[in-house]
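Hey, resending since the last one bounced:
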Amino acid sequence: MQGSQHINPGKHAKQFVEKVVFPGLKEGMSVMFIARVIINMVAMMIIAYLFPGIMRVDGFAAALVASFILGIINAVIRPILIFLTLPLTVVTFGFFLLILNGLLLGLVSFIVPGFYISGLGGGILGSILISLVSWVLSVSLTPRPGF
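The structure tokens again:
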């Protein structure tokens, strides 16, 4: 096997994702986006299991699609809405961001079949819980030096 090269499919898949699927992202950002989508998906499934009155997910695929759409909405639409509602956010000392997050989660439930939020209150509480569970999962899964 002197003339043959070993092909690393993981390396090629990563290059494909970074150059074709997410062409404008910096090195490693697409991998981080995918990791965030998976962490948010797990968070949504945990919350739907623990609090079925707030959020309902009809399976793994619905949670994955909802997490992906939420990531896209948070990356594209949310910054624009935050800028447009900045005066209201300042007047309410930032509490309007909770309503905005709830509305965006409601938008995701409108777009994704199999993902349901119980009204604006459920969206607000669901967005808070998703943030908390995602943070706990991210901290738990991040390698720390010295361990």
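The chain has one domain: 26-141.

Sorry for the duplicate.
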